[in-house]
Amino acid sequence: MPLYDYRIGHGERMVEAKHAMSASPATWGELRELAGLPDDGTPADTPVQKILTTGGVVGSAAGKTDLPPCMGGSGMGCGKGLCGM
């Protein structure tokens, strides 16, 4: 499940929450229930805003040498984006 960053209220704090990509919680109560976060006393109707970030992707190809060049086999890229084809 993906991990998302949320701003709670008017920027007082941020939290990380795991939930399905299809979910779009709008309030702290919805987010807390959806992601199984603890009740910290924040009112359930407090608005939340998903923060768009560029998360890092870690592939299982790291360190393997029997892969196409663009996946780490030789360090050289594949032409025209057709890697592994």
Q: SSE layout and pairings?
A:
Elements: E1 3-8, E2 13-18, H1 28-35, E3 48-51
Antiparallel strand pairs: 1-2, 1-3
Strand line-up of the largest beta sheet:
2-1-3
Residues in helices, as a percent range: under 10%
Count of DSSP H/I helices: 1
Radius of gyration: 19 Å
Termini, distance in Å?
29 Å
Structural class: mainly beta
Number of strands: 3
How is the main sheet built? Answer: 3 strands, antiparallel
Determine the strand fraction and express it as a percent band.
Answer: 15-25%
Oligomer: single chain
Q: Average pLDDT, to the nearest integer?
A: 78
Poorly predicted runs of 5 or more residues: none
SSE order in H/E notation?
Answer: EEHE
Principal-axes shape call: globular
